[in-house]
């Protein structure tokens, strides 16, 4: 059974930082290091939106304009883990963050490109 497990979410004050981790296990491990992975988020009442993506080697990275300069994506293939470093968090951006794996870097910002999804990690930003 394939699994992606997010961790590191929680409550943080506006302007603060959090680091999310995404660990692959089960079937998802076979393709983790040879495919792109991404992070998406979904606020209450809104659609899930792209946040960041990284190529299989880690050499290519993409971030949404709304988080550019504040969020950084990285990965450690030997540990089958990816990360999202979030700085200067804004108070109106409390969301559930999802990691996604086994995707194509050519369509990195599309939800449909990823095969595996985690259950999500809640990030609450207080003002």
Can you give a write-up of this model?
The protein has 127 residues and is mainly β. 3% of the residues lie in helices and 49% in strands. The protein has one helix spanning 29-32; strands spanning 3-7, 10-13, 18-25, 36-42, 49-54, 61-63, 71-76, 81-86, 95-103, 116-117, 121-126. The strands form two sheets. Strands 2, 4, 5, 6, 9, 10 and 11 form a seven-stranded mixed β-sheet that branches. A hairpin with a 6-residue loop joins strand 5 and strand 6 (61-63). The mean pLDDT is 93.
Secondary structure topology:
Blueprint: E1 3-7, E2 10-13, E3 18-25, H1 29-32, E4 36-42, E5 49-54, E6 61-63, E7 71-76, E8 81-86, E9 95-103, E10 116-117, E11 121-126
Parallel strand pairs: 2-11
Antiparallel strand pairs: 1-3, 3-8, 4-5, 4-9, 5-6, 7-8, 9-10, 9-11
Strand content: over 45%
**Content-based structural category:** mainly beta
Largest sheet: 7 strands, mixed
Q: Give the tally of β-strands.
A: 11
Low-confidence parts, pLDDT < 50 over ≥5 residues? none
**SSE string, helices as H and strands as E:** EEEHEEEEEEEE
> Distance N terminus to C terminus?
40 Å
Average of the residue pLDDT scores: 93
**Helix-residue proportion:** under 10%
Essential attributes:
single chain; 127 residues; mainly beta; seven-stranded mixed β-sheet; four-stranded antiparallel β-sheet; 1 helix; 11 strands; 3% helix; 49% strand
């Amino acid at each position: 059974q394939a699994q992606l497990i997010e961790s590191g979410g929680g409550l943080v004050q506006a302007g603060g930082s959090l680091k999310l981790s995404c660990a692959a296990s089960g079937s998802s491990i076979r393709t983790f290091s040879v495919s792109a992975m991404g992070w998406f988020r979904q606020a209450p009442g809104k659609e899930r939106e792209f946040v960041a993506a990284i190529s299989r080697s880690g050499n290519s990275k993409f971030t949404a304009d709304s988080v550019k300069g504040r969020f950084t994506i990285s990965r450690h293939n030997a540990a089958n883990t990816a990360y999202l470093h979030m700085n200067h968090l804004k108070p109106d951006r409390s969301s559930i963050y999802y990691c996604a794996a086994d995707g194509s870097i050519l369509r990195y910002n599309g939800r449909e490109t990823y095969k595996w999804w985690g259950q999500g990690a809640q990030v609450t930003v207080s003002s």
